[in-house]
Q: What sequence folds into this?
């Protein structure tokens, strides 16, 4: 793929904690982990999506000022960030495997509109919908 | 429904503590900010629990224990964080769910009332009308006339968008409607 979205990021409270969550609990792998002083560019990738990276970024200075960084981190902790959707072949199976690994589910799988969906959050508070592909 | 608002849109609030904290040494500011974030994350857990089972009873003691906070502290922190007292939030979820069932199913209204957490048809009908401005049967009639075009949007986001925007206590709303006042004065916290 030459044209398209390559990186989209979520704000996380703690990049180490987020890395562990996305890799060990969700099965993503690290794509880039680069540091420059206090700044860390960290992206992970779904094994089936080599063209897309999910950034795990910390709201921080100098990208934003301290007060703004705090406001953004609070918004994440309050679950106020935009929706994220993870597509799976089998929602029930994915739910069971992920829950066993300690993922915090906010909604168990529900069968509706010809599909099955569940919801979970990452440790920072980002909300994901786990949707079964139709 | 008249007011549409995504969950996220109403959640921005100011933590006045930021200004006073800025005067203190950095380390203390960071620790305190970090504590706030952990608390917010735990408060979100209480909100998630209500979202998952709005028909259940959620006394403050139960919500507080989900958040690992004291009862006295919980209600105030929740309101500060989400801009709405916990039980009023629960009410919006119940009304939202009842409205969805009225729209999407032919389930009798009494069954919808019991399923969404009310103990009687009377209380349900009255509260529903107070919150949405129309009775359950009026809403059902109106919604079923509108063809659905939201099938491509994940269900929960559609529900969130149609959640009633309850800015004041139901008792306050009731009182004002009765008195015919619409002066925008702030409601109480109950």
A:
């Amino acid at each position: 793929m030459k044209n398209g979205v390559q990186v989209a990021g979520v704000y996380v409270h703690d990049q180490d904690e987020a890395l562990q969550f996305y890799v060990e609990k969700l099965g993503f792998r690290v794509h880039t982990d680069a540091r420059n002083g206090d700044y860390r560019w960290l992206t992970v990738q779904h094994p089936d999506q080599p063209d897309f990276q999910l950034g795990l970024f910390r709201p921080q200075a100098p990208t934003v000022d301290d007060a703004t960084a705090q406001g953004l981190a609070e918004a994440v902790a309050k679950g106020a960030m935009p929706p994220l959707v993870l597509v799976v072949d089998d929602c029930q199976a994915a739910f069971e495997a992920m829950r066993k690994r300690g993922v915090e589910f906010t909604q168990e799988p529900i069968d509706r509109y010809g599909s099955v969906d569940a919801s979970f959050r990452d440790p920072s508070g980002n909300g994901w919908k786990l949707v079964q592909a139709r | 429904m008249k007011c549409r608002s995504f969950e996220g849109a109403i959640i921005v609030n100011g933590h006045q503590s930021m200004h006073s904290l800025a005067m203190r040494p950095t380390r203390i500011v960071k620790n305190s900010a970090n504590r706030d974030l952990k608390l917010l994350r735990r408060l979100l857990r209480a909100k998630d629990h209500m979202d998952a089972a709005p028909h259940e009873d959620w006394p403050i003691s139960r919500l507080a224990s989900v958040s690992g906070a004291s009862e006295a502290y919980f209600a105030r922190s929740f309101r500060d964080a989400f801009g709405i007292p916990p039980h009023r939030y629960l009410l919006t979820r119940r009304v939202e769910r009842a409205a969805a069932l009225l729209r999407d199913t032919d389930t009798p209204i009494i069954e919808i009332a019991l399923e969404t957490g009310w103990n009687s048809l009377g209380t349900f009908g009255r509260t529903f009308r107070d919150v949405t401005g129309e009775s359950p049967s009026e809403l059902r009639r109106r919604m079923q006339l509108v063809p659905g075009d939201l099938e491509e949007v994940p269900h929960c986001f559609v529900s969130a968008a149609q959640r009633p925007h309850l800015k004041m206590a139901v008792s306050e709303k009731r009182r004002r409607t009765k008195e015919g006042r619409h002066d925008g004065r702030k409601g109480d916290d109950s």
User: Anything to note?
Assistant: Chain B has two domains: 7-86, 87-179. The radius of gyration of chain B is 19 Å. Confidence is low (pLDDT under 50) at residues 1-24, 183-190 of chain B.
